[in-house]
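Appendix B, example 12.
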Amino acid sequence: MARLGQEVGRAFPLGAQANAESVRAFANAHRAREASARGSIQIFDRCLLDALAYATVLDCLPAVEVQALLIDTVRSVRCSDQLLLLRITDDYPVNDERDETPEFRRAIEAAILTLARQHTIELSECSVRPESATRIAQAVVERHFARAKARSGLTTAKVSANEGE
């Protein structure tokens, strides 16, 4: 499965160069991915909250579209068992002009935190080094199973992991 960023990046600019069409494409891709998700556990590395944060930082959508994206985002996250914000402790290298600068990444993270606070979206925060971020999904699945087992005696569940951006 291709990553959302790769799919959208084929047709639209990404990161700090993204525009309204880029944000719309990401939001639509997130909606479609959520609608087609199957399995008792779904792990996405991005969600509509990210698209809303980009729309906010880039200030690229008309207010009516931002409001619609906000409504969809709140509805979407309310269906999630857990949202995990990975706070990157070190800056990724900027190897080419398409890469997001550390300042832009921090602005996106700040927007996610502000939007979550403003709209009572619960985030579990985890600080990680960039090279550790890929191991987080495993920890989330293990934590989810432990909580589910404690609640209901569950010992197995179907796991379906989807790559995101």
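Residues 20-36 form the longest helix (17 residues). Residues 154-165 have pLDDT under 50 and may be disordered.
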